[in-house]
Amino acid sequence: MLIQCTKTLLDKIGIKGTELASPEGHEDFPKSFLAWHANLVSINRRKAIVLMNNETRYPVVIYRPSSKDFSKIKELIYEAISEAFRMEGVRKEVIEAYMAKAGEISFSKTANRSMVAKMNNAVRDIEFMNEYLDEKSRIQRYISIVAGRFIQLSGANDSFYPVEKTLESLVTIFGIDEHVGVDEVLDIDLYQLKIQINLEGHDIWRRVLVPSTYSFRHLHHIIQTVFDWQNYHLHEFTVKGSKNKSLKIVMDDDPETMEYFNFDDFEMLQERFVALEEILPEFGEVTYEYDFGDSWEHTIKFEKNVKSKTFQVTFLEGNGERPPEDVGGAWGFEEYIRIMENEKHPSYHEMKVWAENQKERNLNSEKINQRLKQVISGYSYSTFVF
C-alpha cells in the first residue's frame, strides 16, 4: 500500500528522502485503488491526518495523533482504513483481502498538482462536517460515512460518490462476478426495531430496519422521519440496566444538555459517536424522549438481527398517528382529540387550522423510505413534501 504524503506529513513521520518509494505508477486502476494521498492538517485547532484514496477519493481520518502515534503510523493507517470499511458494512474477508493485496505500507511524495487539489477538497469536506469528529478517538468512525457521500466531479460531466466507487472497486479488484454487483462485498447486520410512543390508550408505533453501525444520532434522525416530527425540540436516549448507573445518550452539541447534566445519577455518552451495535444487542430496549416540555417518550425495542446486502434504513410498517407538535403533552393530546371529534365545539375550527401545521402528514411507505435515505447526514423538517 502506497501512502503519498505531503512534505508536512513526511517531516512529522520522520521519513528520509532515501527511504521514499517512487510515486509513479499509481495513477491508474487497479494500483490507484491500493494507494492513498495523505496530509497533516489542522481541524478545529486539532491535528488530523486525512487520507484520500487515489481511485475513489474516499476519505479516512486519524484525529489528534500524539507524538507516539507517528512511530506506529503504519498500524494506525491499517486500522483506520479497515474500520472505515467495516462501518460501511464491507465483509471482513473482503477487508482482509484488500489489505493483503495492498501489502506492506510504503511512503512517497504526492503525485501531482491534480491529486493534491483533490486531497485538499477531501480536507474541506471533512472540515465542513467536523461535528462528526470524535475528540476522544484517534480512529474516526463516522466522518468517513458522511464525507464519503459527498458528490465528486470527474471530467466535464462525470460525477460519482466515493462510497459507491469504493464498493465497485472492491468488486472489480477481487474478481467477483460483475453481474452480482456491489452487494457481494457487503455483509450488513440490520437491527429490526419497533419504536412505540408511550401513550396510554393509544397504539402508535413504527417498525424499521437500521444498520447496526449507525449512531444514536442517526437513530434520532430516523425517529424524527418515520413519525414526521419537526425536530425543533431537545431529546435524549436513556438505557436502563447497566451495572452501576443508568446511561444517558445525549445530544452533546446542545450547551444546556452538557451544563445541567446529572452526573451523580447517570453516566453520559455522546449520541454522535455511539453505535447501535454497542448498546442494543446487550440491553434490548432504549427509551427516547423528544420535547422535554410535552415529554413524548418512545420505547425502542430490539426485535432481531437481519442479515442484508444493503446499507440502508428501511421503514417496514407502522400504526397510529403521532400527537401534534406542541399540543401540550398527554393531557393536551386528549383535549385535542375531544375537540376534533366534535365539530360543534367552539374551539373546533381554530384547533383545526392550528393542527394543519402541527400534525403528522400522511406519507406512504415509499415517501418515508425516500426521506430515510438522507438520515445518514442529518434531518431537517421541511414544510414541502415532494
Automatic annotation (TrEMBL):
Residues 2-164 form the DUF6933 domain. InterPro entries: DUF6933, MM3350-like_sf, Plasmid_pRiA4b_Orf3-like. Residues 190-358 form the Plasmid pRiA4b Orf3-like domain. It comes from the Bacteria. It holds the Pfam family DUF6933. PANTHER family: LEXA REPRESSOR-RELATED (PTHR41878), TNPR PROTEIN (PTHR41878:SF1). This is Uncharacterized protein.
